[in-house]
Specification:
397 residues; alpha+beta; Diaminopimelate Epimerase, Chain A, domain 1; 18-stranded mixed sheet; 15% helix; 33% strand; disordered N terminus
Length: 397
């Protein structure tokens, strides 16, 4: 499907403001994450220059990100870059950027399903996309992994034309209150980073780490590379609080040892400085769900669970032989709803199963919410970049 661009003229691009550069920015919440969104044309094409702008905007590296917009946590140290697409069957292209509070690295390798929920609302708000009915559906290509998602957003007609509706009755655990539902259907997520659903070729692998001997894990990638391990095999219940797990130095050392070993097994090489694969502890459900999780991203325990991590964990539940499957049996031939419990509640994932391939997942769908929090300019040092429009003649606000 092809959507027409908004007839409204976009806001002005980057411009000088004394010793600083004003870059158009829309600060969005997407699911349980939030961060600044930018139009691709408002940022440098050169990745190094682009990253310098993002780091300055967020205030990294600094544990508190005191000199920027970051929230001193990986979940609030994210950014989105969006452009209209010229590819057939694709409406928008989305580049996700993961930053860290205390690091100068910008990782554009993994996806983020939470931030993905804000892409279509952002595109409409910023003039990249024109809403065309009461529900606007767009196909979004995630440049990080080549995955395509079909995203539907409510866009009712109002006094000044169609607009993104943020109010509604949908609720997601990890976000207070209710909001309008945004539906995301992932069309092909298997092997998003690793190249295959089970990158080691096995539903289960045995890995040896110091202090524990051998540990059984499942290495899987259905949108997010995960290493799934039974919490009991690490002498934990899997029901511990986020605070307790973040203070558990012994556990975190063992998880990192597993992550480094499995990163090589998954064909990802040395993952020491990478934000993936994520570590996921699983245990029997405690609140009527399908499976219970504690997700590390990768060194901090998630307050809930990432969208694509939930999709991947749910997928592991329907594949015989995985660490997750022995805990959570899922019934269903054509489809299955997997309720993934996490510290803040639960996350339901609808899996479209492929009867011809045991454990095969044809598509996965879920519900998220989003909200525009701020629209304006983020200020960064002017020496970081001179936009082409300013290279011949400096402009001042």
């Amino acid at each position: 499907m092809s959507l027409a661009l908004s007839p409204q003229a976009p806001a002005a691009g980057p411009r000088r403001a004394g010793s600083q550069l004003a870059v158009p920015c829309w600060f969005m919440r997407g699911g349980t994450s939030k961060g600044p969104f930018f139009r691709a044309d408002d940022l440098p094409r050169d990745p190094a220059a682009r990253d310098s702008i993002l780091l300055a905007a967020m205030g990294s590296p600094d544990p508190r990100q005191i000199d920027g917009m970051g929230g001193a946590h990986p979940l609030t140290s994210k950014a989105g870059i969006v452009s209209a697409s010229e590819l057939r069957g694709v409406d928008l292209e989305f580049q996700f950027a993961q930053l860290q509070p205390d690091s100068d690295q910008v990782d554009t390798t993994p996806n983020c399903g939470n931030m993905l929920a804000a892409v279509v609302p952002f595109a409409i708000e910023s003039g990249l996309l024109a809403p065309n009915s009461d529900v606007t559906t767009a196909r979004v290509l995630t440049l990080n992994t080549g995955m395509v998602a079909e995203i539907s957003v409510p866009t009712p007609a109002g006094e000044f034309g169609r607009h993104v509706e943020y109010s509604g009755n949908a609720s997601i655990d990890g976000v207070p209150g209710t909001a309008a539902a945004i539906t995301i259907n992932f069309l092909d997520t298997a092997g998003s980073v690793c190249g295959s659903l089970l990158p080691t070729g096995n539903a289960r692998d045995t890995v040896e780490i110091n202090g524990l001997g051998t540990v059984e894990v499942t290495c899987i990638d259905n949108g997010m590379p995960l290493i799934i391990v039974n919490a009991a095999h690490l002498h934990r219940t899997g029901q511990e609080s986020v605070g307790a797990l973040n203070e558990d130095g012994e556990l975190k050392e063992r998880l990192e040892a597993l992550r480094l070993s499995c990163g090589t097994l998954m064909g990802l090489g040395d993952v020491t400085a990478k934000n993936y694969p994520k570590m996921t502890l699983v245990s029997p459900p405690a609140r009527g769900g399908t499976i219970n999780t504690r997700s590390f991203i990768p060194h901090v325990c998630h307050e809930s669970i990432g969208v694509l991590a939930a999709v991947t964990a749910a997928t592991a539940c329907v594949i015989k032989g995985t660490v997750a499957h022995e805990i959570a049996e899922v019934q269903g031939v054509g489809s299955a709803i997997v309720s993934v419990e996490h510290p803040s509640g639960e996350f339901s994932v609808q899996l479209g199963l492929d009867p011809a391939r045991p454990g095969g997942v044809a598509k996965s769908g879920l519900l998220r919410t989003a909200r525009l929090i701020m629209a304006g300019d983020v200020m960064v040092p002017a020496h970081l970049w001179t936009p082409p429009a300013l290279s011949s003649k400096e402009q001042d606000l």
